[in-house]
Amino acid sequence: MNLPLNTSANISDPIAQARYNMIEQQIRPWNVLDADVLDLLAVVRREDFVPPAYRSLAFMDIEVPLLGNDAEEAVRLGHSMLQPRVEARILQDLRILPTDRVLEIGAGSGYMAALLAARAERVVSLEINPELAEMARENLRDAGVQNADVRLNDGARDAIPDGPFDVIVLSGSVAEVPTSLLALLRDGGRLGAIVGSEPVMRFTLTRRTGDRFETTSPWDTIAPRLVNFPEPSGFTF
Predict the structure, then answer these.
(1) Distance of CA 64 to the CA centre of its chain
(2) Whether this model's pTM surpasses 0.85
């Protein structure tokens, strides 16, 4: 997809202006410079993946709540969208190809699945919360996305069919890169996850080459936890 970005000179719609500001003031300055990614963010309507109660927050540099009336509690429980700049940077660093089969852990509202599906051949997105899974399905259907499949599944514990995958992305944080998911990568595949514990987390990109795994951690961020993945046991004395 290679559509031209709007310029501030020809934007009269407030929603289009807010989207433009998100891209130019939040995302581009965060080293997201891939023109295809920026163009995609301009055409996938983020506001359509946000519940009506929180739609005014769709383009803000925050984690947007998805469930309930308590915004802080929704974010604490991981019932939220990642910050736009974090989603964009993940998408850029994964370098999705048109032939890629992608697995996402944590469907949320379906927005990241829509971005992935616009670049990949097929996306399987797993969501442990039934209400969020249904929300993601409806949002993707309304957006006309036909190559993304949302499944009610615990990505940390349940069996995951349809592997191996070219790309695996975790839309939330974990304490360490899950070895069970690395085993689902095909040769040349890559896994992106936000790894660590507050106050220090890093986006970690792991690439499989045969039986070897090469890992880089190019940037820092903070994200809510994905549930049921192992946590460190803590210090012992």
Answers:
(1) 13
(2) yes
